[in-house]
Amino acid sequence: MVTTLMVMVSILPGCGSSTEAEIELQTSPEAVGLTELGEVLRLYQIQFKKPPAKVADLAPLEQMAGMVMDPIRNKTIEVIWGVDLPDLGEQPGLVESKEILAYEAKAPTEGGYVLFRDRTVKKLTAEEFNATPKAAPDHSSKD
User: Fold this and answer.
1) What angle is formed at CA 124 by the lines to CA 39 and CA 37, rounded to 5 degrees?
2) C-alpha distances in angstroms, 109 versus 24, 94, 142?
């Protein structure tokens, strides 16, 4: 009876239901990969006190990076390297920074998922992508 009630409450409109976009963010391999990349970039910056300058810099965290490394190497995900994250806390998006940090390679022409500097992920149209600022590498990073 309790299980039935919990199921009924979870499917009622407005009772914690997720939007289609939220569900897609949690299930799309591209969105999940970019979310994972945000976490790997955060952990790298915590450990090394600077952002990674190239994909090879992520080698120490490769086991953790899992499914996102191949798309980066195959260029289906593009990353703007050397960009400091505005916040290294666990929760993404607490310090808003809507500059694109990484994105599906098709995003400029077809639209696709992007990872912002605040480590949030969103699907943009090609027009939205091209109108959104891109992150700039921090050339003053500590070595």
Assistant:
1) 15
2) 21, 30, 35
CA separation for the pair 135, 143 (Å, rounded): 20
The tokens for 15 are 């009772």
Q: What is the pTM of this model?
A: 0.80
User: Rounded distance, CA 130 to CA 9, Å?
Assistant: 41
| Residue stretches of the chain with pLDDT short of 50 | 1-16, 141-143
Q: Pick from 46, 128, 115: which is nearest to 78 by CA?
A: 115
CA torsion angle for 126, 128, 131, 137 (degrees, to 10)? Answer: -80
Give the position of tokens 């699907």: 123
